[in-house]
Amino acid sequence: MKRSLLALASMLLLCLGTTNAQNNTTAQTVNTDATYAKDLLQPGTIAPNFSLKTYDNRTIRLSDFRGKYLVIDFWASWCPDCRKDIPAMKELYSKYSTQGVNFLGISFDTDKERWAKTYWGTYQMAWTQVSELKKWKKGSVIDQLYKVNWIPLMYLIDPNGKIILGITEVTKLKETLESINTASVLDNNSPKAQFKGGQRAFDDYTIEHLKGVFCDKKANVKADLVVRFTVMFDGQVTGAHVVKVKNVEASGSQYNKMTQAKRQAFIAKRLAEYKKEAVRFMTTKTKIAPDVQLKHLWKKPWKEVGMPLWEPATVNGKPIQTNQTVTLNFGCL
Length: 333
Hints:
One of its GO terms (biological process) is cytochrome complex assembly. This protein is α+β, with helices and mostly antiparallel strands. It has helices at residues 2-37, 80-96, 112-122, 142-145, 170-179, 198-210, 253-256, 260-281, and strands at residues 51-53, 59-61, 69-75, 101-107, 128-131, 153-157, 163-167, 194-195, 220-231, 237-251, 286-288, 303-305, 310-311, 314-315, 318-319, 322-330. Helices cover 35% and strands 25% of the residues. The strands form six sheets. A five-stranded mixed β-sheet has the order 5-4-3-6-7. Helix 2 (80-96) packs parallel to helix 5.
């Protein structure tokens, strides 16, 4: 009987201990978030302006994004939690960049090549990336302006330049984006940027640079890719990402000999290549890291690729930033 009572008492103590441990864990999670987010710029505060450089030395200013919602993502390639959040950020970018939201990554990397290879070569982060190339909390200015005491850290800024949210958890950023009508700032009748020379010149340029890139008549996959991109105030084309793939057709003697499973795998692989090439094509020329899966396209470690400057749209004689789409054709035409 005593043994039974002792066993019962031990089980009760164990359960109480487990409950307390769970409560402590929850408390620690809440306190951790409160610790890192409590000193951030408060909602309603005007976001401090700044001027930072991209990898290819373009100047990006906060004021460039006035009139649009903006997500600022503070991160670094050496930060494990930042890398963990990248897939979620890519999902948000894919969904909301078509709804009037701009994204800007601000990195605390100090190694320029490692920074570029991480955001472009490894993770294919299509939104604009800038950096001071200075150590976080040791020489950086932007971390002081935005009170960055922890990364990853995100701010959501409204079209008037005011802080909506400052947070360390990407899930809370997602919840906030879902709760506001970001698409209300889009105007389908607003002026659009154009390729220099107009649509005919763009069509000629596309045929010249994309025709035959993935043409294999023995196993040909034709597809139309709808690409969303941003034309900056200076004509730079950035932020390209594929929003839709349509009119997929496959043919050829080798393709016809494949099993159904191999056909599906072949088409999926080729479409993945098309998507990566479409992003490269619709990005203003810059040096980028080679992609391992497409290494057969590269003749040297770094290659100049991409789109010439466009003529930006203007309002009252002043250039503006615009989000646009274009359809690219791949495969043997």
